[in-house]
Amino acid sequence: MSSLVSLQHVTKVYRTDHSEYHALKDINFDIQRGEMLAIIGASGSGKSTMMNIIGFLDHCTTGNYLFSNMNVSHLSDTELSIIRNQKIGFVFQAFFLLPRMTALQNVMLPLYYREEAKDIAIQKSMAMLEKVGMQRFAHHKPNQLSGGQQQRVAIARALVNDPDIILADEPTGALDSKTGDEVMDLFLHLNKHENRTIVIITHDKEISRLCQRVVTLRDGMIV
Amino acid sequence: MNISLHIQEGLQNLFTSKLRSMLALLGILVGTASVVAMVLGGQLATNEALKQFKTLGTDLLAISLTDNQEDNHASVQDQLSLDQARSVMRADKVILDVAPYTQLYQAMQYEGHELNGGVLGVTESFSRIVHVDIVQGRFISTLDKYAMYAVVGDGINKKIMQYSHRSALGQQVQVGNAIFTVVGIAKPWPENSFVYANIDNSIMVPLLTTMALSKYASISNMILRLSPDAHIEQVQHQITKFLMQYVPHKRLFFRSAQELIDRMAKQSQIFTVFLGLIGSISLLVGGIGVMNIMLVSVVERRREIGIRLAVGAKRSDIRTLFLVEAVMLALLGGTLGVVIGIMIAYVMAIFWHWEFIFFFLPPVIGFAVSVATGVFFGFYPAYKAAKLDPILALRAE
Q: For A106-113, what is the mean pLDDT?
């Protein structure tokens, strides 16, 4: 069975005028479909860089990135935007909902860039809000919601385009432990019952223990 | 992504930062209003200036006869008689009518009161060509010949009424040593730079009478009406050839109404373009205001841009998002600016008693230029927004 994500000899170098910084060094790493995976490491270990590359927000400096057996290392910005829209769902530590928009409008945003018809977009988005238990708050703005509720809306937004993979960057980092657990329960549920591929980037050992596989990064290398 | 969604979203964003949007809008509004008001006002002024000619007709040709300074043979004997002046009609068949006139520089009195005004020696055709209308009595007639009759202008009539408390008609006016009886009163006559004499402040008497009264009264001016298809230069040539056989030592100066109007229109056009440019400066300032505010907006919304990129917005979507906002500011500011500009021009027209005519072009130009300003000055911030690195944008506070 082929991997969903396959990084082959991937490096990432940040260059300034005087120095080079090797954020990732010769990474070889696969993600299988339906996997729930944690990437852990201290800050500066390269885990955010790795998430950005997997999520098509950044290009690797050398090496190849195969996504569903397609080499995506050299795609243009526009092509990456389209893939990102269709294949990736992001969940961020600080939720990153647009404050002007209601929960429903936030969830609809990825569909908007997909040119989905408005009524279908509303229908799909409401279904996602229901899935994360937020349908009652569809017309609330983010500042009227608690942190846990906002993160649920963000997860609904990540799911609405039916992505191949969900990338969650410290999804519980801004939440207290109880709501953090609820969010993790939601991820586990999505993984188990919908067979979603989920990658969680964290430095929290408690969180990583819930995942099937843990990848540890140190100084840009997998250990 | 379809454009109506872009517009909806743009409106929402503009509405969120009301004060800032208002300020940007104001810049464009003032700029557009000044372009429209200045250009429209300029056109109204031009129209007003040309109106006096248009009431007279564009088919007039004025001829002035002056002594040739370098020619010592020039003498008072070298004069045009009335019959010779009238025979100019034969010089070219496009000459439809001719009105020679003389000017007499003699003191004018009414019952011992000084009347400051001029004396014009005219013929019947003068009223036809220059449109002197009569309120009371009649105009000078061919049959008057050497008669001591006078038609007074509106201004002179008013002066006489001040002294006598009745209309000048039938009263007597003294010019030098001669006494004239007033047989007609003219309507107020709009001033006109084509006819040098100020008819309101003149009395008009038979041309032959003036020539008999003073040896200095010579036919120094003629006004001709030409047929509309006349070729001005050719007519001037024919007239010169014709008149030179009678007055070889005089110099002829021609002024055609059409030529004058063309020259004035051209001057006004330059003037209007100049005004438009001055107005454009404020539109430019408004445009810079839009750019400034959009740049601030891009910096403030970096995280939003990052989020949109993360959920799959293309760079072109981000560019369109900001461009649409800038263009909408310009559209709204431009529309309001056009309305206010027209209102300013209207107020100017009322203030200076101009006729208000709605010229279509200035508002259209004002509107088009304001939208172009929005696109031009909105493009750079939009381009900058689209170029943001999604990772850095997401990290922005």
A: 93
